[in-house]
Amino acid sequence: KEEKKKNTSLPPLEYLFKFLDAYDFASEGAEDIAEDNKSIINASVLGKVFEKINGYKDGSIFTPGFITMYMSRQSLRSAIVQKFNEHFKSHNIPEVSTFDELYNRIDKIDIQTANTIINSLKICDPAVGSGHFLVSVLNELIVIKSELGILTDKNSKLLKHYEIIVDNDELIISDEEGIFQYNYRNKESQRVQETIFNEKQTIIENCLFGVDINPNSVKICRLRLWIELLKSSYYKISALPLTKSSIEELELETLPNIDINIKCGNSLISRYALDADLKKALQKSKWNITSYRLAVMTYRNAKSKDVKREMEKLINEIKGSFETELEFGDKRLKKLNSLNAELLHLNNQGSLFGKTKAEKAKREKDVAKLSAEIKKQEEIIEEVKNNAVYKNAFEWRFEFPEVLNDNGDFEGFDVVIGNPPYINIVDIDESVRNFYQVNYTITKNKVDIYAYFIQRAYQIAKTNSEISFIISHTWKATDSFQKFRKFLFTNYVVKEIVDLNFGVFDVTVKPLIISLQKQIKECYQIRVLNENYELTHEIPSEEVTGNDDYVLDTISTNSEKSIFTKMENDCIKLEKVLQFSRGIKTSDDKRFILKVKNNDDCHKVFRGRNIKAYEINWDKEYIWYRPDLMKEKIGCLPHTKDLF
Prior knowledge:
This protein has 644 residues and is an alpha/beta fold. The protein contains 23 helices and 15 strands.
């Protein structure tokens, strides 16, 4: 607007920058023009951009900030209490039950030790998407340090008299004079800015890990974390006050290579088991876990592209040596070697007086049988090597050296958090689907793959760790999830369920937040919260584990449950008179679902979003349906261009 008033024309590039600068990138909501006082870019905006660019590919859906903030706050505080209790127990200090108790006992240990304990946390999002959860975790950890009074600068001097909170998914620092703004000419301002930058770098490098099957997601996640660092970047100042010449020579602190913690791959597929033994691989390799960690650290701090490339090559070489040795230790390869040894022994067998005709026939039969077994085993190994299923396989066993001990054993993560993909298994490639159904055995029929992420989280998490996911509510009662519920309540403590409203995401399912702890506890209370995070009631765990189906009802009150029990005993269930199924799935909704009924082959169609608790809201849509024209392969119709 201002440029138009001046009646000036601008070069295209300059115009583009001014145009983008006019938009309020600090807002997740309305697309407003910020006339004055535009704040720094809100990193969650990148998540919205990612969602629009990527659509729902791979089931990626943007998670609103109020959800990531809550989940990060709850899971991190519980995990930190657990971490400090481990330290207290080893030093004969009474343990604590809550974060508030920890706040009152934090003075029992020195500040440096307290920081080390928090910095040792390992947090993973196995479906990281645009990185929104990791950004929320990053900010929350800094807030927690501030609340505990252990946030210090590089000289171990506390940051006192500052309030640090997370507001609208942004880290806000303020004092009695108002919101903090960096001023490199002010010594205290410089100290605060450096401290926040160093804290963010330490947390990103040591605590945050992410995996995603989509390479675009990985790039955006890395970018978001870099932006979080960039927000707190500072000028390298050797001394104050600054002179005119020293101001001209000011340089921003170089950003580290934090991208190595965010990796591309399918979290659910691995060639090697988490308990695969790396000891022999380490003995035969010239590398060890310490050198692996050192290579990763050198990569992070590399100042030149050449050093970065060298470290990248070295890291791949180390992982390659581990993989080679694991292949030698693979059960399938061991079986093949055993069969070959048996065949060699059989072929070298001799006889002082020669063999009888019957003995020769038996020997030939045994050789033929062994040869057939060897061929079959070789085919199995070759299939594993070349199987397209493993194209995007992610090897948790050695991809993150930070969660391996010095012997190479996989120790796991303290927190697993995220929003798993909203994909039904029938929409997945057949070979991948078969892999899931063989390796993830806690579901049956057609289910969303979020169930597999719950099982994978159990595998990659430490004992007593915190798991927090936002998933569909469909698992609570449906028959397809009976094994899933049994797995859940026999391997986890289900701490909390937050029932959210429809419309949190732009999807037809109703989501909920589930908070779990990886431990076994016979009797406990499941906290049930509403969408405002208010406790509505508690459910005794034995109420769920006491029935064979492990059905969880988080909605009904006790009086309502008694009515339902009477209905179940005295009424005929719909399942006795009706058969339920998925219904029709087209190959192209835009093509075969219409707003106008063109002929008698067009029938009313109802989607999941149309069916509510007590009513059906029809969108006046019709589906062209002629099963007699359809081929065996669903969705393949002849002459579709002439149908309408």
